[in-house]
Amino acid sequence: MCGIVGYTGVQGASPILLEGLKKLEYRGYDSAGIALVNDGTISIAKVTGRIANLCEKTNDGKDYPGTTGIGHTRWATHGAPSDTNAHPHMSNDGRFAIVHNGIIENYMSLHDELTAKGYHFESETDTEVIVHLLEMYYKGDIRKAVIKTSARLQGSYALGVICADDPDKLYVAREASPLILGVGVGENFFASDVTALVSYTRNAIYLEDGEFAEISPEEIKVFDVALQPVNKKISRIVWDIQAAEKGGYEHFMLKEIMEQPRAFKATIAPRIKEGEIVLDETDLSKEYLESVNKIVITACGSAYYAGCAAKYTIEKLCRVPVITELASELRYADPLIDEHTLLIVLSQSGETADTIAAMKECKSRGAKTIAIVNVVGSTIAKLADHALYTWAGPEIAVATTKGYTTQLAVLYLFSLYTAKKIGSISDEEFNRLLTALKALPKKIQETIDTNSKIHQLAIKYYDNKSMFFIGRNTDYAIALEGALKMKEISYIHAESYAAGELKHGTIALIEEHRPVVALCYNEKIMEKTLSNIVEVKARGADVLALTYKGNHQIVSVANDVIYVPKVDTLFSAAVEIIPLQMLAYYVAKLNECDIDKPKNLAKSVTVE
Ligand code: F6R
Questions:
Q1: 410 alpha carbon to ligand 1 midpoint, in Å?
Q2: Most Cβ neighbours (<10 Å): which of 367, 368, 415, 450?
Q3: pLDDT given at position 134
Q4: 3, 192 in Cβ contact below 8 A?
Q5: What is the residue with the minimal CA distance to atom 6 of ligand 1?
Q6: CA–centroid distance, residue 404 to ligand 1 (Å)
Q7: Pocket residues for ligand 1 (CB within 6 Å)?
């Protein structure tokens, strides 16, 4: 949940660290710091708040000279956001400074042990035990000290270390937290993700759990726990700098909303060849798919809601039961999973701790796992039997938009692919739906283009403490995601409800002018949702309905109507969600919220 970065080379390290931290700020932003080795001593600058404060404190890094350093942007877990709890943390003898992303689960016992040995703690963090362990184990060999220290840690960590005795080197270690090494010429880097590296290098080494690296300006040496050298492949980073910048938009979220037609197309187009769906990354044979008696989809947050929406598509087309389960629940549920279960894991970041744990649990029970992931080389992608990437490009705004729609894209591909393989749909139906799927990027674009009035609707509805989102079946699944978008960026209480369930309790909360966003896309159950709209209207609600173009039935019952293009109901989530993302965006903007970095949240939730 934090971002870490490191540099060693010939340039001043501070400005590079600060730039890297700005790119990583979405991972956590309650405090930040840098540490530099210069003239055989370590100097540290730390502040509460954003990287901008750190830039101010360090005079954009100019006041902190040195060509080797580490940086950190924090999302607090142990200890409140404060200057003292901010990283880097320094050893008592001033020899080591470290940055850490992850959680040290056994820090209490280590804290007691180190305190008994005379080490003095400055902060309330779990991280600080690491730097004191380093000091304790250091007998002139830093590699050994790092390895001995790591062996004492339980939990997750991506660790960056500098030592005053070895002023040109960085030491890193990884266990269950993302860490990427950037390979330059006469300079090298490490970071929590590639966004912090792409301005400097496109060559990367993905460190595995249990590996360590010693990084100097000239070379990167990777070792295993036994200090044996490990040969690592250098991978090419394909994301470009433009993609990781705002490109003229006021917020990353708006830019990412606008990118959805392109991202959806980039995800489906390479997998449709000569009228067939090709999922080269998997080995889903007809025999295997026929042996599957249950599909379980697991994920967290929006990724989970993408699974909820696609459940209807998969079940309708493949006639296989699909169970959607929150990863944080599934991991402790003693799930009924065996080798006839296909597990689909959804994750934009590929690093979500609960999702990883649920996946491991299901794998251990024999399930085959497919991961639908955006970040190449991420933990979930590597753990899965097969990874199907969503080619959305870097998603920076904390609230996901293109991550969600591209997850839908892969799930739609998967549904059609499986249905065709097992013969649960006719060739004619397959061809019709494939044509509909290929048309979706254009329909998403049309949805964006024709919804300029969303801003006007936001002006009408933004000043509210509470809202409801209702719908049935897929519309309900989309309501869940629409409400989450509203909550997380505008801080308005937004409750999503299955429309037919309102009268079993929730309708008591409907009062004069309470906004109710009603999703009415599915023609087959239109009449049913319309009656629910009438019920809430009768209790004074202001209804903002969302439906397909040409459905005029709704005008007489709703206060306002958002129209989106008509697509097959099996794929409607991909267009219906767009105006809801835009509504949340404009409502948050009118409420002057920090849209890209909502309070209390972080982009990548690498802790339980
Ligand atoms: C909401 C949002 C989160 C994520 C969730 C899972 O806008 O972004 O709910 O969907 O934290 O994250 P990933 O997809 O990275 O596993």
A1: 16
A2: 415
A3: 98
A4: yes
A5: 300
A6: 9
A7: 300-303, 347-349, 352, 355, 399-400, 403, 484, 488, 604-605
Amino acid at 344: I
Please tell me the pTM assigned to this model: 0.80
Most ligand 1 atoms within 8 A of CB, residue of 252, 257, 351, 352 to mutate: 352
pLDDT digits 0-9 by tens, 206-256: 998 999 999 999 999 999 999 999 999 999 987 766 666 776 789 999 999
Nearest-atom index, ligand 1, CA of 485: 7
Count the neighbouring beta carbons within 10 Å of the beta carbon of residue 466. 12
Task: Give me the DSSP letters along 482-511.
Answer: HHHHHHHHH--EEEEEEGGGGGGTGGGG--
The helix or strand, by DSSP H or E, that contains position 142, with its residue range, turns out to be helix 142-152
Domains of the chain: 3-237 (3.60.20.10), 241-438 (3.40.50.10490), 445-597 (3.40.50.10490)
pLDDT value for 113? 97
Residues in the chain: 608
Closest ligand 1 atom number to CA of residue 301: 9
pLDDT at residue 599, rounded to an integer = 86
Nearest-angstrom CA–CA distance, 430 and 317: 9
Pairing of strands 3-8, 188-191: antiparallel
The tokens of 531 are what?
């009656």
User: Would the CA dihedral through 69, 72, 78, 81 be positive or negative?
Assistant: positive
Cα–Cα distance for residue pair 33/18, rounded to 1 Å: 9
Q: Which residues of the chain have pLDDT under 50?
A: none
The yes-or-no answer on residue 528 being catalytic is no
**Minimum CA distance residue for ligand 1 atom 13:** 347
Q: What is the 3-state secondary structure (H, E, C) of 315-339?
A: HHHHCCCEEEEEHHHHCCCCCCCCC
Q: Which residues of 172-181 are buried (b: 16+ CB within 10 A; e: fewer)?
A: bbbbbbbbbb
Alpha-carbon separation of residue 420 from 285, 317, 413, 430, 433 (angstroms): 11, 9, 11, 7, 11
- φ, ψ for residue 519 (rounded to 5)? -90, 120
Element (H, E) at 346: strand 341-347
Cα–Cα distance for residue pair 518/507, rounded to 1 Å: 14
**% the chain with pLDDT above 90:** 83
Q: Where does 18-125 show beta strands of DSSP type E?
A: 31-38, 41-48, 68-74, 89-90, 96-104
Strand pairing partners for 43?
Answer: 36
308 is catalytic: no
- Please give the structure tokens belonging to residue 377: 């080389």
- Which residues, in sequence order, are CB contacts of 383 under 8 Å at separation 6+? 356, 359, 360, 363, 369, 371
Q: Report DSSP state, residue 457.
A: H
pLDDT for res 173? 97
Are 186 and 217 spatial neighbours (Cβ–Cβ below 8 Å)? yes
Backbone angles phi, psi at 583, to 5 degrees: -60, -45
Task: Return the best residue to mutate from 380, 486, 605, 608 for the ligand 1 pocket (most ligand atoms within 8 A of CB).
Answer: 605
- In sequence order, the β-bridge partners of residue 551 are none
Distance separating alpha carbons of residues 62 and 71, to the nearest angstrom: 15
